[in-house]
Amino acid sequence: MVYESKFGRVLHLKEREKDEAMSLYQETVKKFEEAAEKLYELLKKKEDIVEHQSARMLNGLSVQEIRHHQLFLDNLEKTINHHQKMVINARNRMNLYQEKLMNKNIEVRKIEKIHEKDRSQFFQELKIVESKQMDDISIQHYMNRGS
């Protein structure tokens, strides 16, 4: 007798949903890393520009150059703020998909446990049936010997 699970299709479906959730989570992690890397590059660029400007200030700068640097830094600061918001949004999205993935993992584990319990129960019932059949065969064999 072959075991056919009532929960096989459900388990397969839940595993596919979990795989899709994993794929989406990995995609959001990648986007978060890209946004964080871009933010890091911008912050590093700002730091380098400030250091460069400080070094040039020692030698003296014209007012025009100072204005130009300040305007550039202001624009860079706006870009940094924008990218900080993008990083926060990407992190929130990543955390949301991580939570969804964890929920899918929990669902799969629940279905696996139910599946395993059903399988175990099936084989226990099968052993009982086989034991009864063996008893019947033994009784018939004994009865045939006695005659």
- Determine the structural class based on helices, strands and strand pairing: mainly alpha
pLDDT below 50 for ≥5 consecutive residues: which ranges? none
Assembly type of the chains comes to: single chain
Average residue-wise pLDDT: 90
- Total strands: the figure is 0
Name the features:
mainly alpha; 147 residues; rod-shaped
Task: Explain the overall architecture.
This protein is mainly α and 147 residues long. Helix 1 packs antiparallel against helix 2. It is rod-shaped. The protein starts with 7 loop residues before the first helix and ends with a helix.
Summarize this structure briefly.
With about 150 residues, the protein is an all-alpha fold. The protein has helices at about 10-60, 65-145.
